[in-house]
Design brief:
The protein has helices at about 1-25, 40-45, 90-100, 105-115, 130-140, 145-150, 165-175; strands spanning about 30-35, 60-65, 180-185, 190-200, 205. The protein is α+β, with helices and mostly antiparallel strands and about 220 residues long. It has a single domain, classed as Ribonuclease Rh, Chain A (Alpha-Beta Complex), CATH 3.90.730.10. Strands 1, 2, 3, 4 and 5 form a 5-stranded antiparallel β-sheet that branches. Helix 3 packs across helix 5. Bound molecules: 2-acetamido-2-deoxy-beta-D-glucopyranose (7 copies). One 2-acetamido-2-deoxy-beta-D-glucopyranose (NAG) binds near residues 27, 29, 67, 73 and 74.
């Protein structure tokens, strides 16, 4: 009887550990590749950005392994912590252009927090170096700033756009539906981020779904 009990206790414990492991080792379904418009970061921030004039280029916020059921998950998985030595000098100088910390200016700290929060959750598919290399390659593949510029969508304090005004040219160029994310400054809805979605392997771009981005069919300002 005692043996049976302890066997049972062992099985329950093992199962609990298994569940914890599965949850924290970060299974995910697809990737969200998020690019941000630095002037919006700086405008809604409670203190000024370190650079007096924010970059007028879309730059990387992060590459986020995501779940269909909850796109904010997984996060903060187990797995190796950020190791700066794995970001080789050439890659480092690329990332300083594509993935700068536009707010406080410490690029390394930004990469560290993105890897520790998100990158670790997809470590089974992309190790740290591959994670940063893939992200840079995704940034290179389409220049959102230029796609919008070619469609006459340039920063302006007076123009208003609809969601589809902004999505359409990007969709035309990439053949995939992106997602937009906005931030509010008082009642003005500002374009903040453009999200591309990628398959599990982070190679093939797919349509993003949902309308979570910029709510309420409200006009969007890009400035
Ligand atoms: C945008 O990035 C490119 C490099 O990719 C740089 O040459 C250019 O000066 C940047 N433009 C602005 C306005 O920051
Ligand atoms: C994410 O989804 C996968 C498979 O769909 C599932 O196994 C995993 O538990 C989910 N993870 C989280 C953190 O929601
Ligand atoms: C930038 O962040 C890194 C990583 O968190 C840290 O080691 C370094 O001291 C920071 N540098 C500055 C100048 O604050
Ligand atoms: C993207 O396009 C913008 C606007 O044309 C340009 O300033 C920038 O240098 C381009 N970035 C890259 C990496 O080519
Ligand atoms: C933008 O327009 C220029 C000039 O017509 C063209 O060379 C360039 O390829 C276009 N870029 C994009 C991203 O569509
Ligand atoms: C843009 O939309 C705002 C409401 O968000 C409105 O107050 C403003 O007059 C509009 N501007 C133009 C040029 O239509
Ligand atoms: C969006 O929906 C399409 C069609 O159902 C599907 O193929 C695709 O994987 C979905 N993308 C995401 C990111 O959920």
């Amino acid at each position: 009887m005692a043996i049976l009990k302890s066997t049972l206790a062992f099985l329950v414990l093992a199962f609990a550990f298994f569940i914890c492991y599965v949850m924290s080792s970060g299974s995910y379904d697809y990737f969200q590749f998020v690019q941000q418009w630095p002037p919006t970061n700086c405008r809604v921030r409670n203190k000024p950005c370190t650079k007096p004039r924010p970059l007028q280029n879309f730059t990387i916020h992060g590459l986020w392994p995501s779940n269909y059921s909850n796109p904010r998950m997984p996060s903060k998985c187990t797995g190796s912590l950020f190791n700066f030595r794995k970001v080789y000098p050439q890659l480092r100088s690329d990332l300083k252009i594509s993935w700068p910390d536009v707010e406080s200016g410490n690029d390394t700290r930004f990469w560290e927090s993105e890897w520790n929060k998100h990158g670790r959750c997809s470590e089974a598919s992309l190790n740290q170096m591959q994670y940063f290399e893939r992200s840079h390659a995704m940034w290179i593949s389409y220049n959102i700033t230029e796609i919008l510029k070619n469609a006459s969508i340039v920063p302006s304090a007076t123009k208003n756009w609809t969601y589809s005004d902004i999505v359409s040219p990007i969709k035309r160029a990439t053949k995939r539906t992106p997602l937009l994310r906005c931030k509010y400054d008082k009642s003005t809805q500002l374009l903040h981020e453009v999200v591309f979605c990628y398959e599990y392997d982070a190679l093939k771009q797919i349509d993003c779904n949902g309308t979570a981005g910029c709510p309420n069919q409200k006009v969007i300002s890009f400035q």
